[in-house]
Specification:
The protein is of the alpha/beta class and 363 residues long. It has 14 helices and eleven strands.
């Protein structure tokens, strides 16, 4: 370990959990309850139900975006899955952005959210369209700390619902395309989200600062930073914010691949210092409502199979020992202690989203 990494690891050492890898029997994959806190399952598929029950997992369905006019349709599908099986399909809602310039906007948004909470929604998602897509009538990008949203954030804090915040993009969105980047495939095929050479857009730093400003203005609001809080490149920056904002949490959905690019001892140290602040997720989407043609049963089973492979690969990285393969790269597994795995995989999500902890094994 080089001197710089040693200093960083020691800096994470102020924890009750030891950094030493004490001998401990690795729990079985299906033994620990698992919650995928960031999912988009918008069809009733028996193969998905069977997979989740077999591997002891439930998934939180996330409704986004709020600016494409399909919020009520997403809500109906998420609600139908939840009512069919609340043990497998809790869901979060979002708020409409289309009428944001109309009088009474925040009152309508809050009324919608309260209705969603009564129907069972466990949280609220805000998506990257806020910051890098929607604009004010004057043509300026609306940042997530815009005063128009303050009454909504204050209401969420009052009623005790977390804000699941996907704000900004990975830093690679603002950098030249790099075939070695974990996000090369996405930005090379979705150029609308690749912001390099587009100075009219807010910077990554500006959007992250706006997200942080929300927590400064609303210190009792619980904020769950999606995708490592869009700081996947900066573990020190993540730690600094976890220290600064006691109600800030992060989840790893679609960013485990980024964690594997960091030194394993530093990633492990982050988990050991903040075991109550990091949640598990994958961000896999199954949204037939956005497809021109209905999926086939073979496609449904194929998605279930790919989900299982991802869940298993994640488990091998977080719970495994020695060398493992992740996204085609040889990496060192984290060998997290069972107590940390329990928090990461289910207990933190149960606490933040106020989920019933006695769901495992229900039929």
């Amino acid at each position: 370990m080089n001197a710089h990494l040693l200093r960083l690891t020691l800096a994470f050492h102020a924890v009750s959990l030891p950094l030493t890898r004490a001998a401990e029997t690795r729990p079985a994959y299906t033994e620990i309850r698992k919650i995928d806190c960031h999912s988009h399952i918008f069809e009733d598929v028996a193969a998905f139900d069977a997979l989740f029950r077999r591997i002891n997992l439930r998934t939180i369905n996330v409704c986004v975006p709020g600016g494409d006019g399909r919020l009520e349709e997403m809500d109906r599908v998420a609600l139908s899955l939840y009512r069919k099986d609340p043990t497998l399909y809790p869901f979060t809602t979002t708020f409409n952005l289309l009428d944001r310039d109309q009088p009474g906007y925040t009152d309508r948004a809050i009324a919608w959210l309260d209705g969603a909470f009564k129907r069972g929604a466990v949280g609220v998602k805000i998506w990257k369209e806020v910051g890098i897509e929607i604009k004010s009538p004057a043509g300026k990008f609306i940042l997530p700390d815009d005063p128009i949203f303050d009454p909504i954030y204050a209401h969420l804090a009052k009623v005790g619902k977390p804000l699941h915040a996907h704000l900004a993009e990975p830093i690679d969105a603002w950098r030249p395309l790099d075939p070695d980047s974990s996000h090369y495939s996405y930005y090379s095929t979705n150029p609308q989200w690749h912001l390099y050479g587009k100075p009219e857009y807010p910077s990554h730093a500006a959007i992250i600062a706006a997200r942080d400003h929300i927590m400064q203005k609303h210190p009792t609001l619980v904020v769950l930073g999606a995708h490592l809080g869009s700081l996947e490149h900066d573990l020190d920056g993540i730690a600094a914010r976890l220290d600064r904002y006691p109600n800030f949490h992060i989840e790893v959905a679609a960013r485990t691949r980024n964690l594997t690019r960091h030194p394993s001892e530093k990633v492990r140290a982050l988990f050991l210092k903040y075991p109550h602040r990091i949640l598990y997720g994958v961000d896999a989407g199954w949204m037939p409502l956005r497809r021109p043609q209905p999926p086939t049963d073979a496609q449904r089973q194929g998605h279930a199979n790919s989900l299982e492979l991802r869940y298993q690969a994640d488990w091998d990285y977080y719970a495994g020992t020695g060398e493992t393969t992740y996204n085609g790269r040889k990496v060192q597994a984290l060998n997290l202690p069972r107590a940390v795995l329990e928090q990461f995989y289910h207990a933190n999500a149960e606490r933040l989203f106020k989920l019933d902890a006695a769901w495992a094994g229900k039929k």
